[in-house]
Amino acid sequence: xxxxxxxxxxxxxxxxxxxxxxxxxxxxxxxxxxxxxxxxxxxxxxxxxxxxxxxxxxxxxxxxxxxxxxxxxxxxxxxxxxxxxxxxxxxxxxxxxxxxxxxxxxxxxxxxxxxxxxxxxxxxxxxxxxxxxxxxxx
Length: 138
Prior knowledge:
This protein is an alpha+beta fold. The protein has 4 helices and 6 strands; from the N terminus they run ααββαββββα. Strands 2-1-6-5-4-3 form a 6-stranded mixed sheet.
């Protein structure tokens, strides 16, 4: 396991829990995409811009994002050239969720998050929320 990737992941998770929007904005690469899929085969893609709008709105409303990350387990890391991948597992409301994060390295350190792939039980509520947000802005 590449400990430097694990350390960077913990920094990312801590920034999310603290609603440190400025740090999150720096950590997400401009081309960042989160692809989420579930057991039914539903898929949704979320861009950096969408994430940042959501985080800023939550912060402005005094809300927090996510649950504590005490249950996070890092299962594997892979480094290939200037990219590093972290496979992570956790439970959300008793349901296992698996993640694959891809980081960019520059200047000898992990700089920005390029991709997040999430495998969840059911993303139907997420899809409904995205569609409702789109309808509200159309």
